[in-house]
Amino acid sequence: MDKILEDSLISEPVSDGPKPFSALDINDVEDFVSNKIQNSLANPSWKILDVLPARPLQTVAVQGTVKIPRFSARYELFYLDAEIDKTRLYKACQDLLARNEILRTVFVEDEGRCYSVVIEDIQVPIIEYEIEDDIETFSKSLCNLDVQTRMPLGSAFVKFMHVRAMSGHSCLLFRISHAQYDEICLPVMLRQLSQLYESAPVEPSTPFSAYTYHVLNNALPKSLPYWQNLLAGSTLSILKPDIPITNTTHYATSCTFDISSRSKDTTIASLPTAAWALLLANRLKTRDVTFGEVVSGRSIDFPSSSPVVGPCWQYIPFRVLFQPSWTALDLLSYIQTQHLASSAHEAVGLSELLEHCVDWPATSWFDSVVHQDVEHVENLRFLGAECRMETVYPHMEPLREWKFQAFVREGGRRLEVEIVTVESWRGVAEEILGELEGVMGMLVERAGERLFGEKG
C-alpha cells in the first residue's frame, strides 16, 4: 500500500491533511484498491489518487446517473454568439478537469456501498457536431439523446460536446452528475471555465476530498449528539393525502407575497421555514412537526478560505415543538435560532441520522422539504463573445417528497413560494397554497399575535 500512496502523492501537492485512502474502513486496503476498485474502472490503467466512501446524497445521485431515469444528469449549455477559438476552448475544458478533482472522480460499488475514486488524469474528448442552423433546437435534442446512452459505474460522468453552425454561432454542452456538484460550487466551475479560456486569474477552490475527510474525522463525531438531542422523541410529519397516485408528472403551483412590512428582527430565510412549519402544524393538527430542509453543508467549521468544489449540500431535519403561548415573532425567532445552531452540524446525511440519532424506520425519507434559492449563472464572456447559459435536465426526478421552494424577489420586498408535487395531488397543492396566504399574513402582518387560541 505504501507504494500506492507514494505514487499518488507524486503528482499532488503534499499537505498536512489526512493520508490518501485513510477514510477506508477496510482491513487490507492495498488488496481492496488494487483488486476491487482498480478492476471496476472503465479504464483499469487509470492511476488512482484516493478512494473515499461516497457521501449519502452522492450515493443517491450516483444511482440517479447510472440508472434510468437519469434525474441527476445535468447539461449546462453555453450559447456563444460569435466565432470562438476551438483549440483554446477545448484546452480550457481539459484544464477545468485537471483543476477540480471532483470532475476526475468516478464512482464504483462494492458490497452495496458506493465509493468515490479520484483519478489522476482523465482525458475527456470533446465530441464535435457541425450543423446548418438552429443551434438551440439541435443542442437540446442532443441532451435528450445523450441521456439515453449508458453512464456506467467506473466511468467518467463528465462529458463535453460542441455544436457549430454555419453562421459561426456555437454551443458548448457540459454534462455533469449531481454526484459532482451542488448549486453553490457549480457557478464557481462555470466561471473557472471562462477564466481558463481567457487566461485570466482563476477563482480558487478547495477539493471535495478535503471536505469529506473533515466531515468524517471531525464534523460527524461532534454533530451526532446535537441531532440526538434535537430529535429525541420526534417523528417525521406526513402530509401525503389519501389520494391514489395515478399520474407522477410534476405539478408546480406558486404565489408571490409582499413581505416588505415583515419584522426585521429575524432573517428572510426564517420566513419560508416558519411558514411551512406553521402550515404543517395547522393541517396535521399537531404541535410537534419535523420536516426536511436543504442546506449548503458549508457552514461547518471547515478550515478553508476558498469554496469547496463538490456536492456539500444535505437534507437535514428541522423540528419545531410549538409552545402554546407563542406569537408569530416567537416562532420566527425560534426558527432563526435553530438555523444558527444546526448550521454547525449540517454535514450529517439522513442515513447517518437514521443509524445513530433517531428511531425512525430505516427506510425513512423526508415527506416534505423546504428549499431556498441560490445563485445561478446566466451569462459569461469568452474573450469578447457573449455567452448565454441554459440548464437542461432531460429526465425529471421521481418525486419522493413535497417540495416547498422559496425565491426572494425585488431586493427582499417580495417572496415567491412554489409547491411541487405530483399531478395526482394537484388539488391538494392548490389547497395548501391557499392556506399559505393566511399563514404568511400571520407571520408578516400580525407577528405580535398568538399563533393559537387560548387552549393552544
TrEMBL record:
**Pfam families recorded:** Condensation
Identify this protein by name. Putative Enniatin synthase
| InterPro entries the UniProt entry points to | CAT-like_dom_sf, Condensation_dom
Q: Which GO terms describe its molecular function?
A: catalytic activity; phosphopantetheine binding
All residue ranges annotated as the Condensation domain in the record:
78-370
Q: Upper taxonomic classification of the species?
A: Eukaryota, Fungi, Dikarya, Ascomycota, Pezizomycotina
State the source organism's domain of life: Eukaryota
Q: Which organism is it from?
A: Glarea lozoyensis (strain ATCC 74030 / MF5533)
What GO biological process, any one, is recorded here?
amino acid activation for nonribosomal peptide biosynthetic process
The entry's cellular-component GO terms read: cytoplasm
